[in-house]
Amino acid sequence: MKLLRHLVTFAFMLTGALTNAEDKPAVVAATNAVAGETVGDPKKSDLDGLVVQGTMKQIIGVFSTYGHVHIGDTFELEPTNLPKEMIKFTRPHFDPKKDVSPYVPFGGPLTVEKVEMGSKEIAGSVIRLTSEGTANRTGGNLVIQVRVEELKSGSKAKIYFYETSGGNIRCMAEAEGVLK
C-alpha cells in the first residue's frame, strides 16, 4: 500500500510538472543544454562537475528496450555531458552471454529542461531532464527528475524516471543515489 501511495504521488507530481509548471510560485530557471543558454538563476556552471549516481529501487512497467532494467541496476548521469541515445546501466553479476546489457533508450536528445533552486529546509532543488521521442525512435517521451537537498557533491538524491507514449504512462521508476 505504501508503494502504491508513493507511485500515485509520483504520477501526480510529474503530471503537474508537465502541465502546470507556469502556475507554480517557485523560482524556476530554465537551462537549455543544447543551445548552452541559461536564463535567470541558477547558472549552467552550477551543474559543472556534478555526476548523478543512482541505484534503481522500484520499477513499474517496462521501458522501450530489449535490455530491461532491474531493481539494483546502477547508472551515472553527468548533466553537462548527457548521453546521446541511451542511459546504460550496470548490473551486479551480469553475464553478457545470457542477457542483453540493461539500458533505457530515448527518441530525441536528452537535455536539461530546467533547474529549480530550492532550500534544503523546504523542498530542495530539482534537475529536470527530458527527451521527446521521434517517429523513427521509441516514439515516447522520457522525463528524469533528480531531487536533491542542495546542488553540491555529497547530496543524497531521489531520481524519478517517467516514460510516456501517446499520452499514456508506459513506465515509472524510482532510484536513490548521490551527487558526486
Strand content: 35-45%
| C-alpha-based Rg, rounded | 16 Å
Low-pLDDT residue spans: 1-41
Give the topology string: H per helix, E per strand.
HEEEEEEEEEEE
Q: Please state the oligomeric state of the protein chains shown.
A: single chain
Helix content: 10-25%
Throw out a few tags for this protein.
180 residues, mainly beta, two-stranded antiparallel ribbon, 1 helix, 38% strand, disordered N terminus
Short structural summary:
It is built from one helix and eleven strands; from the N terminus they run H-E-E-E-E-E-E-E-E-E-E-E. It has 180 residues and is mainly beta.
How does this structure look, described?
The protein is mainly beta and about 180 residues long. Helix content is about 10%, strand content about 40%. The chain has 1 helix and 11 strands, in the order αβββββββββββ. It has one helix spanning about 1-20; strands at about 30, 35-40, 50-60, 75, 85-90, 105, 110-115, 125-130, 140-150, 155-165, 170-180. The strands form 2 sheets. It has a 9-stranded antiparallel β-sheet with strand order 2-1-7-8-9-10-11-3-4, with helices on one face. Strands 5-6 form a two-stranded antiparallel ribbon. Strand 7 and strand 8 (about 125-130) form a beta hairpin. It is globular and about 45 Å long. Residues about 1-40 have low confidence and may be disordered.
